[in-house]
Structures are given as C-alpha cells and as structure tokens.
C-alpha cells in the first residue's frame, strides 16, 4: 500500500501538490452552500460545479484531488429526505466526478502540445491521484464540533465505527486511489478509523490528517503525537499530517509528527482565517496572504513534508503558487547535484 504514495513522490521529484479549498471555490462558481451538507449539497444540486473546481485545481498543478464527500454521509443525506440507495449513490458520485475530471484533464493534456502553462493553464501529463474524503463525525453534526473535537461522553469508538462503516466501504469500493480521513479532531476518532480499516480489510491506502488550534495538540486537546502514533501503527495508513490549521502552527506540528512517524507527512493548512462556528462563516481579514502562505512551503518540505496543498479558503491561485515553489525548489536541487 505504501508504494502508491512513494511511487507518486518518486515521479514528482520528492514532493507532490494537493488541491485547495473546495467550498470556497464552489461558492465562487455560484453555489449556495448554506446547508448542513455544505459542499456535499452540490453532489445532487450542481455536480458540474464540482467537476469544474477539480479541473481548476488540476490545471493549476495539483497532483492529488480530494472528492466532495467530506460532509457527505448516509445519515446526512437521509435527514434531507433521500433514501439509503440514493445516499449511497451520491457517495459513489463524489468519486466518479473526480475521476471524470482527471480524464477530462488528460484529454486536454493530449490535445495541447505546449505543456506547462498553455493559455495560462498547467497542462502536463503526470500521475494524478483521487483521494476520497472522509470527514469527521463532527462535520456531519454541522455544529462546529469538528473544530473542538468534543463529542460528549456518550460517543465511543464503537459509535464512531458504526457511523462511518458503510460510508467508508462505499467510498473505498468506488474507485478512488486512496481515502483521506480529514480534519480528525480527536484521538477517539483516529482509533475508530484505524480499527475500521482493519476490520473491513479496506483494500486501498489511506491518510490521516489532524487539525490543531494551538500548534501543540489536536483541537480536542488530545496529544498530536499520540494521534500520530495511531496512524503510524496502522499498516493501512500511508501518510499522516495536518489540515485545516493556520499556517503559523505547521512548523512545530511537523517536528512533533516526525518524532512518532516514518510515513510521508501531508500538510494542507487553511488560509489562517478564523471560523465562527455560531455564524457558520469565516471572519474576514484574519488570514494570511498567498505570498505569506507560500513563503512557508519550502520550509515545511525541508522539515519533512512531502505532500503539500491547501484547505479552507485557499484557491487554485494558491495551489499554482505551491506548484511553482516546489518546482523551483526541485530544479534548484537538481542543479546542485
């Protein structure tokens, strides 16, 4: 399983680019995401917009695109009136859309001979992975608890396994290259994911990415190093890292993860803006500029990050700048050898 990521990194020169924020871009294309399903609403309301956002990221240098299934759960769809069958179909659709976008991108590459930067687009035939997103139980609740990790005493590992089980089975069987367990807010859910991958004998690899609001622990207050150790000990997990966390915290978090894992480090922070869970919106003017964000990227890679992208509020422009920064760094490294 580990060969999937190692093969990608070997072909990309040691670092690979993940895509950026999905919801922000869907809204920019006209989607109304004021809904408990958030970006997953577009799976039935406007799948063409999801495909377009995937393509935008591919044409700006992403090597890995993440499906629109972060907040897509069977329980969430059924609460909106969909049947079990319809809910399962929409999970499969999230993967199909990403795979279709990859094929369209490859067709565009084949039809363009100028390669890098055709009409302002990066049209370069390269390995592209589809990662099926699995958001936390807190994301389903849509009450901001994915940013606190506080699920209450009634929620156990078994509760979480039962909640995620069918969804993970469907996503894994829908043809993605890997599963991305994202914004994992506490140790309990990490344990549930690790056990579920083993119990269900999931055949494709996975990554675990945690979020932090203090630069030391995951958002629940659980030790990041303990959470990272869970990922390290699960042979189904091929990368571990951090997402949806302010860029200023990433340096120290990578250092901590490197103490407990030998697996590739995946890093895709948010823009640094503050999210107001009560208003369900991002507080304006609280983040960093793209330039500041990009200034961190090579430092993260020097520390050991090998998969780098963006999360909430980052854009295709951000991802293009990451692609350029990593390409420049790789060229400089080759020039010195």
Automatic annotation (TrEMBL):
Domain of life: Eukaryota
SUPFAM superfamilies: Homocysteine S-methyltransferase
Gene Ontology BP terms: methionine biosynthetic process; methylation; S-methylmethionine cycle
Pfam name, any one: S-methyl_trans
Entry GO MF terms: metal ion binding; S-adenosylmethionine-homocysteine S-methyltransferase activity
Membrane-spanning ranges: none
Obligatory cofactor(s): Zn(2+)
Residues annotated as binding Zn(2+): 244, 311-312
Keywords: Metal-binding, Methyltransferase, Transferase, Zinc
InterPro entries given in the database record: BHMT-like (IPR017226), HCY_dom (IPR003726), HCY_dom_sf (IPR036589), Hcy_S-methyltransferase (IPR051486)
Hcy-binding domain location: 4-326
This protein's name: Selenocysteine methyltransferase
Source organism of the structure: Cajanus cajan (Pigeon pea)
């Amino acid at each position: 399983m580990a060969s999937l990521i190692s093969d990608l990194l070997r072909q990309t020169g040691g670092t690979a680019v993940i895509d950026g924020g999905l919801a922000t871009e869907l809204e920019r294309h006209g989607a109304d995401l004021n809904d408990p399903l958030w970006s997953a609403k577009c799976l039935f309301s406007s799948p063409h917009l999801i495909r377009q956002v995937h393509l935008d990221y591919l044409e700006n240098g992403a090597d890995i695109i993440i499906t629109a299934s972060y907040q897509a759960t069977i329980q969430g769809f059924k609460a909106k009136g969909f049947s079990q069958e319809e809910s399962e179909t929409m999970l499969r659709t999230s993967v199909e859309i990403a795979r279709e976008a990859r094929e369209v991108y490859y067709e565009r590459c084949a039809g363009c001979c100028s390669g890098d930067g055709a009409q302002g687009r990066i049209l370069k035939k390269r390995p592209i992975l589809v990662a099926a997103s699995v958001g936390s139980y807190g994301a389903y609740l849509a009450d901001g608890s994915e940013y606190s990790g506080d699920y209450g005493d009634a929620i156990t590992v078994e509760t979480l396994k039962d909640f995620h089980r069918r969804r993970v089975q469907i996503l894994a069987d829908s043809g993605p290259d890997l599963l991305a367990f994202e914004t994992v807010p506490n140790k309990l859910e990490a344990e549930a994911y690790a056990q579920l991958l083993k119990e269900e004998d999931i055949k494709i690899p996975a990554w675990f990415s945690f979020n932090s609001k203090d630069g030391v622990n995951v958002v629940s207050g659980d030790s990041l190093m303990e959470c990272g150790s869970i990922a390290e000990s699960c042979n189904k997990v091929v990368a571990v890292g951090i997402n949806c966390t302010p860029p200023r915290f990433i340096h120290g978090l990578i250092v901590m993860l490197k103490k407990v894992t030998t697996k590739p480090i995946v890093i895709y922070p948010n823009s640094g803006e503050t999210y107001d869970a009560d208003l369900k919106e991002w507080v304006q003017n609280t983040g960093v500029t793209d330039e500041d964000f990009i200034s961190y990227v090579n430092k993260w890679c020097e520390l050991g990050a090998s998969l780098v992208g963006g999360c909430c509020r980052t854009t295709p422009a951000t991802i293009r700048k990451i692609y350029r920064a990593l390409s420049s760094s790789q060229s400089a490294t080759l020039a010195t050898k």
